[in-house]
Amino acid sequence: MRFIGEELYEAFFKGYTIKQWGLHPSALPASVLKRIPVRFNYNDNYFNHKFQGIPKFGYTQMVKSIVEHENIAVELCRSFTQEMRTDYDHVFFSGALDAFYSCQYGRLEYRTLDFKKIICQSDYQGCAVMNYCSIDTPYTRITEHKYFSPWERHEASICYQEYSRECEAGDIPYYPVRRADKMDLLNKYLSRAKKEKNITFIGRLGTYRYLDMDITIAEALQTADVYLTSLYEQKEMPAFTVTV
């Protein structure tokens, strides 16, 4: 509040935060609110990174190229079970931390998303992403994908509205909700996980942290380096390679 004042807080932060997280901003850690950049100029970029970009042929092609590597086997529609651990020297688990233990201590809190597809025969909103901060608008943002690749020409447009809600059993968990009043439950899982052998928890769900894609990828590469070093030095690989 002291950085932006009450007027901007009410206009941009309060309603959007309630929609996105289902909580009043006061119930969330400051790190969540600090994710929204505040500028005093006309720069409308969300990120401050010196280099920004997307894969030349899109994320689908990038991931496809990775998983089609001869040393990678992909099995779909198969849930992880503890018995699988005996098949490998080491496991890197990027699923939900509480799900790894079958939610024995209770379910951690997550937010999930519902998407509504919009097909427009022209431009829809004129930019890649527009966030809707008013509490009276049910969706949080609209993404118009063709604006991510302005070097291409598309007359029609495909957009998606995003609706945030509480993640229930069977939903896809998108956002871990780290609340100060719920840390006891998280710490139970973290304490148990840190004692595990031959497994490392990674990613947004595995470490129960709200991470952007660039940080997630950087941490994955860092984890790979730690693992290779541990093999070379014949040391035990930790359950977490980051501070959780």
TrEMBL record:
One GO CC annotation: cytosol
This protein's record includes keyword Hydrolase: no
Organism encoding this protein: Salmonella enterica I
GO molecular function list: flavin adenine dinucleotide binding; UDP-galactopyranose mutase activity
Gene3D superfamilies: NAD(P)-binding Rossmann-like Domain (3.40.50.720)
Pfam families reported for this sequence: GLF
Protein name: UDP-galactopyranose mutase
SUPFAM superfamilies, per the entry: FAD-linked reductases, C-terminal domain, Nucleotide-binding domain
